Amino acid sequence: MFIELIKFNLSSSYFVHRGNFYCQKSGTAMGNPLSPALADLVMETLLDHVLEGIDIPIPFLKKYVDDLITALPIDMIEHVRNALNEFNSHIQFTCEMENNNQLPYLDMLLIRTAQQKIVTDWYKKPVASGRILNYFSFHPLTQKLNTATGFIGRVFKLSTCRSENEKKELVRDYLLNNNYSSSLINRLINRYINKNTNTHESNSSTHPEPKMYRSLHHVEKLTPALAKVINRNFPNVQLGFKCVKTNRLLFSKLKDATPQLEKRNVIYRIPCADCDCAYIGLTTQQLKNRLSGHRSLINRYADLKSSDPNRATEREEEFKKTALMVHVIENEHRFDLPGTKILEQDNRLNALQVLEMCHIFCDTKTVNYRTDTSNLSVVYSGLLHSITNGQR
After folding, report:
1. Taking a C-beta distance cutoff of 8 angstroms, is the pair 18, 257 a contact?
2. Please, are residues 287 and 340 in contact by the beta-carbon 8 Å criterion?
3. Residue 298: per-residue pLDDT
4. Distance separating alpha carbons of residues 210 and 207, to the nearest angstrom
5. Dihedrals φ, ψ of 3, to 5°?
6. Host H or E run for residue 6
7. Contacts of 119 (CB under 8 A, 6+ apart)
8. What pLDDT score was predicted for residue 385?
9. What is the dihedral of CA 19, 25, 26, 30, to 10 degrees?
10. What is the CA radius of gyration of the chain?
11. Interacting residues of 359 by C-beta distance below 8 A, sequence separation 6+
12. 31, 54, 185, 264: least buried by Cβ within 10 Å?
């Protein structure tokens, strides 16, 4: 059953480009969350199969996803590489051998000394730009500090062949080139050293409250203030921050955009054709299906009214399923369904419900019931009230 699910997943990946549908021929799509797990399973299967047919002892073999490091006799290197490449024509390995007693692996350089011992050094590829998260980039300060601290940790842990002063100089040069100040670099280095030299195990027997993880969009000055309030009042909530200015904004969209009427999980606004009012609604299905439901209800009522006005009057309450229909029946107005606009889109239902209430609250011309915003938090109400008053 598991294999059948995997096959279904791999055979049903597709995307639309210029109106044409394309299916993934082999492997998984880039960004598919299943890819890392499958890559690891495939590599384990590959190694188990290949190593069975190799009749020489291999002193060690380490793997990180598809990167391998091992030790082999020189005359067996090509034999082993060919055995690996024969497993599957889509999986082909290249080989990098020890040069001048050095061999890079991931971001670490292994160095064989004259005493036949292995020391390591932090390694970057010759084509590396030397860029990490720049200090002046539009990201939360915590992310910049964590990036710099992570880099310091890698250099200090991996550079066993350097003195502490050499490690510090390497870190300073790298971070200075990414606009981190000297004073900040020194504080981060000292904090890292102190933390790793004065570690104490906690003997607390209390069980900490389970963590809850939430994310916030990074808005300069506003987000740090909100984070302080949340951390003070909800210590069990772990916050993450999302940058709104991403590289995606710099590049044109290669995939076709989803047509407006085929979008799901949206807040939409339908204007009235006979007055300035509008109806604001939420749907998790395709917008065209929701509009079709509105159109069907309006047409059924109109047909009944034209054929039997008395019967239509008697059954009015059956048709008043939404504020839109109440406006149609009580005012005899028509809604411009083709003029519908999408106000928001979000895959989180809770977020959509809050957004719908916010839009209804801010729109003074909406036909929606005022009770539709009764569940809106007073925090949002006060903020939206200030915004709407400021706009006026």
Report:
1. no
2. yes
3. 94
4. 9
5. -65, -35
6. helix 2-11
7. 110, 111, 113, 160, 161
8. 67
9. -10
10. 31
11. 267, 269, 280, 343, 344, 366
12. 31
Residue in 75, 117, 111, 81 with CA at minimum distance from that of residue 96: 81
Length of the chain, in residues = 392
Quote the tokens at residue 264. 């799901």
Question: Which residues of the chain register pLDDT less than 70?
Answer: 198-208, 252-255, 378-392
**Alpha-carbon span 231 to 220, nearest angstrom:** 18
pLDDT given at position 270: 96
3-state class of 107 per DSSP?
coil
Check residue 313 and give its pLDDT. 87
Helix (H, G, I), strand (E, B) or coil at 168: helix
Residue with tokens 């807040």: 267
CA 352/CA 375 separation, integer angstroms? 13
Q: How far apart are CA 98 and CA 79, in angstroms?
A: 17
Nearest 5°: the CA angle 357, 374, 215 is 50
Dihedral angle at the C-alpha atoms of 294, 295, 300, 304, nearest 10 degrees? Answer: 110
Structure tokens at 347: 């895959």
DSSP-assigned letter for residue 92: -
Whole-number pLDDT of residue 366? 92
Residue pair 58/25 in contact (Cβ under 8 Å)? The answer is no
d(CA 222, CA 317): 47
pLDDT digits (tens, 9 = 90+) for 340-384: 999 999 998 988 998 999 999 888 889 998 777 777 776 666 666
Q: How far apart are CA 87 and CA 206, in angstroms?
A: 52
* Torsion, Cα of 261, 264, 267, 270 (10° steps): 20
Q: Is the pTM of this model over 0.70?
A: no
Q: What is the predicted pLDDT for the residue at 134? A: 94
One-letter amino acid of 153? G
Averaged pLDDT score across all residues of the chain: 87
Cβ-Cβ contacts under 8 Å for 272 (sequence gap 6 or more) = 278, 279, 327, 333, 334, 335, 336, 367
Helix (H, G, I), strand (E, B) or coil at 375: coil
Angle between helices 182-197 and 164-176 (to 10 degrees): 140
CA distances from 267 to 98, 296, 342 (A): 60, 20, 6
195 three-state secondary structure? helix
